[in-house]
Amino acid sequence: MRHASAALVSLLMVLAACAAAPSASEPASPGGQTPVASSSDAAPSVGSGTPREGLTSDPLHALVLIDVRTGGEFTIGQLAAEQPVLLETMAIWCTNCRGQQRQVVDAHDLVAFHSISLDVDPNERPHDLAEYADREGFDWPFAVANADLARQLRDRFGAAVLNPPSMPKILFRTDGSVELIGLGTQLNAAEVAAAVGG
Fold first, then answer.
1. Of 20, 59, 119, 134, most Cβ neighbours within 10 A?
2. Phi/psi class of residue 167: alpha, beta or left (left: φ > 0; alpha: ψ in -120 to 50)?
3. Are 128 and 93 in contact (CB under 8 A)?
4. 35-197: which CATH topology?
5. Please, are residues 117 and 144 in contact by the beta-carbon 8 Å criterion?
6. For residue range 137-183, what is the model confidence (pLDDT) as tens digits?
7. C-alpha separations of 41 from 23, 38, 128 in Å
């Protein structure tokens, strides 16, 4: 009986999480699903982690991310303690994202900052993301978001932050501040450099 009760509670929690997902009126991925990150065991790419060295003034600073190419763990706070961090939510299929990422490549020639690309499509896997990053020549960390991180981002910045074609970009400054910039707009290299260097 206890097992049945536990299963019922788990089912109710899943249904509640589904109800909190972005509405059907928001843009969906080519597979027809709204791109909200999954908590699948096949992509354990972010954890709640305990705060590490670096900035920890914002809860997002302390999250442990896993680089899909190296398997190495890092936190946004560690990177933001050194230089500004530009985090882009994206998906492999998103051509807007790829165009923005190419502008970011050029922006790195203009100003010093860290980049992170965070895949928020629940259908994409770390291995495929690593192949994408290598194929496109992007040399910064790529990670896959899980449901917990997707929920935190949505609660903080709104559902559009999980819609890759909107090219969401989150700027983490060295002073600990965090800001969503350029939503719905592709920034050219000079605009990216001005935003991260300002």
1. 119
2. left
3. no
4. Glutaredoxin (3.40.30)
5. no
6. 999 999 999 888 999 999 999 999 999 999 999 999 998 899 999 99
7. 25, 9, 16
